[in-house]
Amino acid sequence: MTKRLRKISMLLLAGTVYASMLGGCASEQRKEPDQSVEKQDQPVTGTDGDEKESDADGSDSAADTYKPSDITFPCQENYEDPGLGLKFVLPERLLQAMEKKEVAMLTEALAEDQVSLDYGIYTFSVMTAEQRDAEVSTGDGNAFYEWAGKLERIGAIGGYRKDQLDQLDQLTKCGSHKKIGKSSDGAYTYYLSTNPDADKTLVKAVTQIKAEIIDMLPLEEAENDGDTKNQTGSLGNFSMKDIEGNTYTQEMFGDYDLTMINVFATWCTPCVNEIPDLQKLYEEMSDKGVNVVGIVLDTADEEGNVLNEGLEKAKLLAERTKAAYPFLIPDADGLGGRLTGIEAVPETFFVDKNGNITGKTYSGSNSLEGWREVVESELENLKGAGA
């Protein structure tokens, strides 16, 4: 089988990191990135390179670009990747640099199949102010990787099969490698790598990463392990308010054959950029029995208490994008548990008229054409199932 480059997701991100790097945002942050809503009245650049001016009321917010720096790894207390067999904790100095977007944490791996890796690494690289603010086209699948390839590497931590060990310098872009252990079966050797030519303070911080070798799981099993979200079955009874104070219950599904639920955050650039397309989809598909509902994660905390700052941003976002479909505030039960564990946005799933989760879960943003194809497919599958 031909080997392919794939982004490896951590257990804590429930298999969504890869998709988020292509068109989404990791949602767990110590503090919010640049506020996308506040930038909607700025000129945006289309994929053809021509500048598009926003309307006077800021309604044209469908930017065709996003900031790669917005979708690097978030700061967390620890990171665990069962597919790689690695768990590690970052020192405070490195976390601070990541918070300030001075350092980008990324990941890459090479795998023959969904069973095991050839190698998997987490990398740490310096971002200049220009790289931090750079925007790339959402329509260019290589743009993110080209941006990432220009960052100056500080260090990396990863695991490698024996036949990859002679390529450590090339894979990690580092010249110094410290062995930190082996997998229980001896198939993988783990190294903490640093670039001696990079910023000395940051390099020192990389050397202070605390790593632990853990049991390795097959990739497919690792990506699903610990995922407690309700992926099937009924959402049950619930009561949620939208950002205008209107109440919505499970009865809202009864008027449509299929409801598309888009979970997002106001600070997520790809999330914001696709809302105008979701509005067009809503307008086009409602006559075909399809509804669209947004759930704004940063409008409430885990207990369901409203967060006023997120609420105001959501209202502004709805106004500027002219979104007519509802933006709901998460309830304390997380929509029957379905929102539990979402760590990367946007995430989209579908519900039938009886409130049952149906079809696939989609991680990352999409275009109008892309979503149109997805919805048509989900409708067809629903009819085929006799719903």
Keywords:
387 residues; alpha+beta; six-stranded antiparallel sheet; five-stranded mixed sheet; 10 helices; 22 strands; elongated; disordered N terminus
Write the layout of secondary structure elements.
Blueprint: E1 4-6, H1 17-23, E2 25-26, E3 44-45, E4 51-52, E5 65-66, E6 79-81, E7 86-89, H2 92-99, E8 103-111, E9 117-126, H3 129-133, E10 136-137, H4 143-149, E11 152-161, H5 168-172, E12 176-182, E13 188-194, H6 200-207, E14 210-213, H7 219-224, E15 239-241, E16 247-249, E17 258-264, H8 269-285, E18 290-296, H9 308-321, E19 327-328, E20 344-345, E21 347-352, E22 357-363, H10 368-384
Parallel strand pairs: 17-18, 18-19
Antiparallel strand pairs: 1-8, 2-20, 3-4, 5-10, 6-7, 7-14, 8-9, 9-11, 11-13, 12-13, 15-16, 17-21, 21-22
